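Researcher: I'd like a structural prediction for the single chain below. Treat it as a standalone chain; there are no partners to consider.
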Amino acid sequence: MRIAIPHTLGKDEVRRRVEAKVGRVGEKASETLAAMVTVETSWVDADHLTMDVSAMGFSIPCALEIAEQELVFDVEMPQGLGFARGMIERTIRDKGEKLLV
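Model: Treating it as a single chain, here is the predicted structure.
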């Protein structure tokens, strides 16, 4: 699933905001899902972050790309989570937009 969130901040400012908040992603996800969530993050380069999210017995590989006019999330949905696709997409959009504020 690919989710693009437009912005007008420029890559440097988006990167600064992501770096400042990425450490709290697991905590925020746990609050949202009311379940234990672990998130491992790793910067591939200045504009690409990988995230491995583990929740409810599922492992969900994700990637974040910082582009000049959008923040792009790529999420590999496991087969057993198809029922939650809409909720996951809404959550990513909501949290992604708040990340840019």
